[in-house]
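Hi U.,

Before I forget, here's the chain from the pilot set. I'm dumping it here mostly so it's searchable later in email.
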Amino acid sequence: MQNYFENDYAAFRFKQGILHITYHQGLSIGLDAAVQVVKDRILLQEGRQFPILCDIRGVKEIDKSARSYLALEGSVQITAIAFIVDSPVSVMLTKFYLKTSKPPVPTRSFKNIEEALVYLNGFKDAD
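Structure:
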């Protein structure tokens, strides 16, 4: 399994059974970006399920079609998601996403990466 990959929107890295996705700085996410991120993530996972640490601190905005796609189709092969937020924009984006999109996998937001990793460790495969 490939350990690191980067596309025009995000960097993907596996660390200790968790897939870390870090979106690039100043990014506006539309449907095309969301589809590409999900497509690349699924290819990297090679059919296996993982918890996801999703660092969205660099995201400026995300449109409705991208939010809807990520909440449904984007939840494939994910056991749980922890969003890393810090700025008022990323906090607001996450609250709005969780409230309106209702993702089908356990999803929480954190300002602290260590707390997010503790949360995600409970969703790792036992193999």
